[in-house]
């Protein structure tokens, strides 16, 4: 699932012509915790209540000085937005077009259901495995065969190219909760497992990020 599918293009913004008081009024009146700062259609960063508590600058550009604006592209996978949101403990992540122009935001309220759907949390018990590889090495037929040798089936599969690494990433949902046998089989065939979820009590990077968001919402 790509970020553009859950991007809010009508989310409120502020401009460099606004000041600190304008932001505080916007956040309070709209009952939100963060808002993107734009210079025309150029994204400069996100002003949050946390930043307002820590920094005292009146000028909004000065307020965000030294904070590199981080955002995702429309065609990035939602997992990238998840990692960025969890790392920043932010309720929104800005989204840009292929031309680098601001188009909207992904909110935590929209991201959580999207991730839950990808992980199969809404459906019958199942497991999820994420693999990374070179695009030329991808073979759905081989993956399906290896999964089936463990009395399981691939019930959902999503793929995307990761911009930062150039790797081809595959998210598989399989028809059993205990994924340990499937993971072991894939590793025997030299597949690199990035994440996996199932009945086992373990933690990995994606689950940590997801839990961080849940904890953030409960604060």
From TrEMBL:
Task: Tell me which SUPFAM superfamilies the record gives.
Answer: CBS-domain pair
| Ranges for domain CBS | 63-126
Q: Which of UniProt's keywords are assigned here?
A: CBS domain
Signal sequence range: none
Q: Which Pfam families match?
A: CBS
Question: Any keyword Metal-binding?
Answer: no
Coiled-coil positions: none
The keyword Magnesium appears for this protein: no
Note the InterPro entries from the entry.
Answer: CBS_dom (IPR000644), CBS_dom_sf (IPR046342)
Name of the protein described by the UniProt record: CBS domain-containing protein
**What is the species of this protein?**
Pseudopedobacter saltans
């Amino acid at each position: 699932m790509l970020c553009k599918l859950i991007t809010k293009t009508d989310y409120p913004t502020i401009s460099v012509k606004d000041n600190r008081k304008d932001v505080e009024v916007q956040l309070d009146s709209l009952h939100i915790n963060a808002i993107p700062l734009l210079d025309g259609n150029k994204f400069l960063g996100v002003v949050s209540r946390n930043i307002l508590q820590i920094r005292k600058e009146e000028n909004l550009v000065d307020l965000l000085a030294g904070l590199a604006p981080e955002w995702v592209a429309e065609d990035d996978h939602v997992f990238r937005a998840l990692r960025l949101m969890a790392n920043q403990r932010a309720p929104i992540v800005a989204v840009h077009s292929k031309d680098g122009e601001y188009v909207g935001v992904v909110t935590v309220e929209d991201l959580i259901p999207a991730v839950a759907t990808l992980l199969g949390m809404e459906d019958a018990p199942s497991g999820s495995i994420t693999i990374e590889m070179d695009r030329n090495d991808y073979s759905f037929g081989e993956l399906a065969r290896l999964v089936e040798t463990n009395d399981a089936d691939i019930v959902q599969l999503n793929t995307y190219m990761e911009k930062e690494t150039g790797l081809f990433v595959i998210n598989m949902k399989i028809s059993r909760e205990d994924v340990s046998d499937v993971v072991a089989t894939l590793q025997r065939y030299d597949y690199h497992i990035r994440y996996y979820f199932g009945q086992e009590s373990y933690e990995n990077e994606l689950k940590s990020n997801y839990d961080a968001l849940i904890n953030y919402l409960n604060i």
